[in-house]
């Protein structure tokens, strides 16, 4: 239930006002979408593609949608089966990943982080006088999306606004959540009949100031830390900032984002990361420091192309380029989950050490106050129907769409599955 006092959006603190000043004008109207597609709740303008903001909705609750992770040794294999069901991930890779979890007692940090995020969101909402409960459900582990929908049903909530813990556009980081929402509604029978539940989703928030601010601070601090610990370090030639994100299959990357817009190599997924990295370097006062976008955590058969370069390969090349220090920025991740703890803090930092490089890994947004406030702002812009021009976005690519465009983030490998919060192809 949304109380009358919703607080204010956007630039209601000096920090966020400053961040919002970096906002670029909204992109020009994109090409018209496929005819005949009807989006429940979408304005006719949204359906024509002239505007991508839907009408305001008085949501009953927020659905915090996480990836999920095991919380004990017995959970590890069943969890990995959930994640990889129907995908042909080789057994060696499954065992390799199981080993990462086993190393940490079979427990991924991700559920604890989502519990902390849920609590932080609740505190932020309460602090602003917003009466909007937060339900939490995961795609791959307990509590599942099904459990969250059962709770919504039991509490009489019919209009949910989802926040997925994932900032960018791609099959794995957007559409798969939307497919799993559709699945969960069908599975629980809560999407039909009397009191049918509707799930909308906040826009991808890769360039929202709340998500970007923690990385700006992290890069600024990371460079300063290296300068303090390596005497005489020349930041313009001897430091490299590596922005790391999850690699994805090149075919997924090419299909990321709306089919009607072109984004170059790596699709919208890579373009969004490049654009955010540039903003982070600028706002960290580090435009003079070399940087590149690198990928991590690839899986799948070696014959299948995934986005490159791998972070470890990139690190190996650094000494020959004269670098003495590296700042590793987990730009593709919202919290310190296994990919960050293992692939960055364990592997990448080790690679850096082996190559004689000083290295720091900057924090993920986690429960950074700017991030938490930003997520609440993202919900409020949907409650209030904030026009595109008034929505904060720090790159030219955004603000992203409330309702995903036709064909957005399709998966050509796994085939079509119905998805919510998008215009049907
Ligand atoms: C883009 C992206 C994100 C970021 C967006 C988001 O956050 O949603 C992400 C997050 C995560 N991925 C995670 C875990 C796993 N991902 C896997 C597999 C895969 N991820 C992929 C992509 C992504 N993944 C892809 C293309 C595959 C191959 C499957 C396929 O063919 O499409 C596998 C299977 C084994 C393996 O292949 O490694 C596991 C165990 C965890 C939980 C970590 C924890 O427990 O702390 C998190 C947060
Ligand atoms: Fe993953």
Structural account:
The protein has 425 residues and is of the alpha/beta class. It folds into 2 domains: 188 residues, Rossmann fold, CATH 3.40.50; 153 residues, Rossmann fold, CATH 3.40.50. Helix content is 40%, strand content 10%. It is built from 13 helices and 8 strands. The strands form 2 sheets. The chain has a 4-stranded parallel sheet, sandwiched between helices. The chain has a 4-stranded parallel sheet with strand order 6-5-7-8, sandwiched between helices. The radius of gyration is 21 Å and the shape is globular. It starts with 13 loop residues before the first helix and ends in a 41-residue tail after the last helix. Bound molecules: coproporphyrin III and fe (ii) ion. Coproporphyrin III (HT9) binds next to helix 3, helix 4, helix 7 and helix 12. It holds the Pfam family Ferrochelatase. Its main location: cytoplasm. It is found in: Cytoplasm.
Question: Secondary-structure blueprint of this entry?
Answer:
Elements: H1 14-21, H2 44-48, E1 61-66, H3 73-84, H4 91-103, H5 110-127, E2 134-138, H6 145-154, E3 159-164, H7 171-188, E4 198-201, H8 209-229, E5 239-246, H9 250-255, H10 267-283, E6 291-296, H11 311-317, E7 325-329, H12 338-354, E8 358-361, H13 369-384
Parallel strand pairs: 1-2, 1-3, 3-4, 5-6, 5-7, 7-8
Helix pairs in contact: 3-4, 5-13, 6-7, 8-10, 8-13, 11-12
The structure holds coproporphyrin III and fe (ii) ion (FE2).
């Amino acid at each position: 239930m949304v109380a009358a006092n919703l607080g204010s959006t956007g630039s209601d603190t000096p920090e966020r006002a400053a961040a919002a000043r970096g906002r670029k004008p909204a992109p020009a109207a994109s090409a018209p979408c496929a005819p005949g597609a009807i989006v429940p709740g979408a304005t006719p303008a949204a359906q024509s593609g002239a505007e991508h903001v839907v009408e305001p909705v008085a949501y009953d609750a927020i659905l915090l949608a996480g990836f999920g992770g095991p919380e004990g040794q017995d959970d590890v294999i069943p969890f990995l089966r959930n994640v990889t069901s129907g995908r042909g991930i080789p057994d060696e890779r499954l065992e390799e990943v199981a080993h990462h979890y086993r190393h940490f007692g079979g427990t991924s940090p991700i559920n604890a982080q989502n519990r902390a995020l849920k609590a932080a969101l609740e505190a932020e909402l309460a602090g602003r006088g917003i009466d909007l409960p937060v339900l939490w459900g995961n795609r791959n582990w307990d509590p599942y999306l099904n459990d969250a929908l059962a709770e919504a049903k039991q509490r009489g909530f019919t209009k949910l606004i989802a926040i997925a813990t994932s900032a960018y556009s791609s099959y794995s980081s957007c559409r798969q959540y939307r497919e799993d929402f559709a699945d969960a509604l069908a599975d629980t029978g809560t999407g039909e009949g009397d009191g049918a539940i509707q799930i909308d989703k906040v826009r991808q928030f890769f360039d929202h100031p709340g998500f970007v601010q923690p990385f700006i601070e992290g890069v600024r601090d990371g460079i300063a830390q290296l300068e303090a610990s390596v005497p005489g370090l020349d930041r313009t030639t001897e430091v490299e900032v590596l922005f790391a994100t999850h690699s994805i299959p090149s075919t997924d990357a090419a299909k990321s984002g709306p089919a009607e817009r072109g984004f170059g190599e790596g699709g919208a997924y890579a373009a969004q990361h490049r654009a955010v990295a540039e903003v982070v370097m600028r706002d960290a006062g580090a435009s003079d420091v070399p940087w590149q976008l690198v990928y991590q955590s690839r899986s799948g058969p070696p014959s299948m192309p995934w986005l490159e370069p791998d972070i470890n390969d990139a690190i190996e090349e650094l000494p020959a380029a004269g670098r003495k220090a590296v700042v590793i920025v987990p730009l593709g991740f919202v919290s310190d989950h296994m990919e960050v703890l293992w692939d960055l803090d364990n592997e990448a930092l080790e690679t850096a050490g082996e190559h004689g490089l000083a290295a720091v890994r900057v924090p993920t947004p986690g429960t950074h106050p700017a991030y938490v406030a930003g997520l609440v702002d993202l919900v409020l812009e949907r409650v209030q129907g904030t026009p595109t021009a008034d929505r904060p976005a720090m790159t030219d690519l955004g603000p992203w769409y409330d309702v995903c465009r036709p064909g957005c983030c399709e998966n050509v490998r796994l085939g079509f599955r119905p998805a919510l919060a998008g215009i049907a192809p």
